[in-house]
């Protein structure tokens, strides 16, 4: 019974927090500010009512009440902190709009905001930390029956073993009959085929079923779906063909259930808002950095022969080509569609001495602000690659061209996560693509501002050469 209650409590954390957080924050506000005598008692009561209602609405819309079972605690702490800052800013605006902000002590407001943030972090991060420790010790776990080939089962078991704090473990494995010599340290012994699996389910209990399917298994996917549909347990499909760059959301089209795998779901209003921010910051940056533009341009012209600006055709939004502008940092100016085009490498002899400095501090990218003003690029988005490199990687990295469902950017999530520079292996490009597509899935203006801030703080990169 204790285990069952703990599992129920774990699943209900978000629901409890939706009630606890606004109540705790409102109570703290009353404790710090309720005794302030410049407001009449009935006005204080009415103000606290509207305050509690506003806090409840803003927190519910902040996006912190979603599943964080697979999110790092550091990412969760950052998300809770940024959301509370936004909520606090909205509450201050409410105070100014109602002309009630002057009725409260600034010190008390500061103490309330700080203590509220502490309560939110304790509620969301601290509680989950305790749950993860508890799960790592084998408690509050979910059991899984896995159906699939040996390779897919072993891979899934390794992923679960690497994250013990998730509290998920495979207790039974069934699938197409493997070789009797196959075994894996994180995987239970092979339990048999469909008939044995049916018997095992009738005699044992399990929290959920996870299955994958391969055409070579000898089983039709429709047969497996019929089998699992006849079982009253949660069933999860883990496609063997899935990769980290994909996202899975469902929608109904004409009565047919369809699954989105790739593609941007950014609304027109969001695109226009992002474009407005690009224009505002782009124009301001060009005016502020105009002297630096002139200094770099003269330095490029005086230190090596050739044009000041490097122009190259690259793929932009929806894969349409555009001309990108950069300060020339090499002795050569190669077209982007040249066969066997070589990426810049460390100590590349093609790079001029000044070009090495420009690349290290990302100053060669400054002319792309004009690409932003023209509308070919955005301040933040997937970095555009040379056409020859695009044609090479699109055949080797699943979902590569999906990067172009967003307007390319001067900087991006991949760059601030240390994935810029030379991609010497296919896996390094795959990691960059995964970050680009993750940015597209999670896009928001706050994420753009966060990336811009991180770019500014890490403008000198050891990977830029």
What would you say this structure looks like, in words?
With 465 residues, the chain is α/β, with parallel strands linked by helices. It has 3 domains: 2-136, no CATH class; 142-242, Rossmann fold (3-Layer(aba) Sandwich), CATH 3.40.50; 268-457, no CATH class. 49% of the residues lie in helices and 11% in strands. The strands form 4 sheets. A 4-stranded parallel β-sheet has the order 2-1-3-4. 24% of the residues are buried.
Write the layout of secondary structure elements.
Blueprint: H1 2-11, H2 13-33, H3 41-60, H4 73-97, H5 106-136, E1 142-147, H6 150-161, E2 168-174, H7 194-203, E3 208-211, H8 221-229, E4 235-237, E5 249-253, E6 256-260, H9 268-288, H10 290-303, E7 309-315, E8 321-327, H11 353-360, H12 368-374, E9 378-380, H13 387-393, E10 409-411, H14 413-416, H15 426-441, H16 445-457
Parallel strand pairs: 1-2, 1-3, 3-4, 9-10
Antiparallel strand pairs: 5-6, 7-8
Structure, briefly:
By secondary structure, the protein is α/β, with parallel strands linked by helices. It is built from 16 helices and ten strands. Helix content is 49%, strand content 11%.
């Amino acid at each position: 019974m204790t285990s069952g209650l703990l599992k129920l409590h774990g699943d209900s954390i978000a629901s409890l927090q939706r009630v606890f957080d606004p109540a705790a924050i409102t109570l703290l506000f009353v404790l710090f500010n309720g005794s302030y005598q410049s407001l009449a008692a009935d006005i204080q009561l009415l103000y606290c009512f509207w305050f509690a209602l506003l806090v409840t609405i803003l927190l519910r819309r902040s996006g912190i009440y979603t599943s964080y079972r697979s999110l790092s605690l550091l990412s969760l702490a950052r998300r809770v902190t940024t959301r509370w800052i936004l909520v606090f800013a909205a509450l201050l605006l409410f105070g100014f709009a109602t002309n009630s902000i002057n009725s409260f002590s600034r010190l008390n407001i500061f103490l309330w905001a700080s203590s509220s943030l502490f309560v939110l972090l304790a509620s969301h991060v601290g509680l989950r930390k305790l749950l993860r420790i508890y799960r790592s010790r084998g408690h509050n776990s979910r059991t899984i029956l896995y159906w699939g080939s040996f390779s897919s089962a072993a891979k899934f078991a390794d992923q679960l073993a690497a994250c013990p704090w998730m509290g998920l473990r495979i207790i039974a494995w069934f699938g197409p009959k493997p070789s009797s010599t196959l075994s894996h340290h994180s995987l239970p012994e092979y339990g048999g085929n469909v008939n044995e699996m049916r018997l095992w389910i009738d005699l044992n209990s399990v929290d959920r079923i996870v299955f994958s399917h391969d055409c070579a298994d000898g089983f039709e996917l429709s047969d497996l779906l019929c089998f699992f549909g006849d079982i009253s347990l949660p069933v999860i499909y883990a496609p063997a063909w899935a990769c980290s760059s994909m996202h899975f959301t469902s929608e109904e089209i004409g009565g047919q259930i369809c699954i989105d795998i790739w593609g941007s779901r950014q609304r027109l209003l969001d695109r226009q808002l992002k474009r407005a921010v690009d224009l505002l910051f782009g124009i301001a940056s060009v005016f502020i950095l105009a002297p630096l533009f002139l200094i770099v341009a003269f330095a490029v012209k005086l230190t090596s022969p050739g044009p000041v600006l490097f122009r190259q055709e690259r793929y932009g939004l929806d894969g349409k080509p555009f001309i990108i502008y950069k300060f020339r940092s090499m002795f050569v100016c190669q077209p982007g569609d040249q066969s066997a085009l070589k990426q810049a490498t460390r100590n590349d002899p093609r790079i001029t001495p000044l070009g090495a400095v420009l690349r290290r501090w990302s100053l060669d990218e400054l002319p792309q602000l004009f690409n932003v003003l023209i509308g070919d690029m955005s301040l933040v988005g997937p970095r555009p690659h040379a056409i020859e490199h695009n044609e090479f990687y699109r055949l080797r990295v699943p979902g590569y061209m999906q990067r172009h469902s967003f307007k390319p950017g001067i900087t991006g999530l991949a760059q601030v996560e240390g994935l810029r520079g030379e991609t010497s292996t296919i896996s390094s490009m795959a990691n960059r693509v995964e970050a680009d597509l993750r940015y597209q899935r999670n896009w928001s203006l706050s994420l753009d501002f966060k990336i811009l801030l991180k770019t500014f703080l890490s403008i000198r990169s050891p990977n830029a050469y």
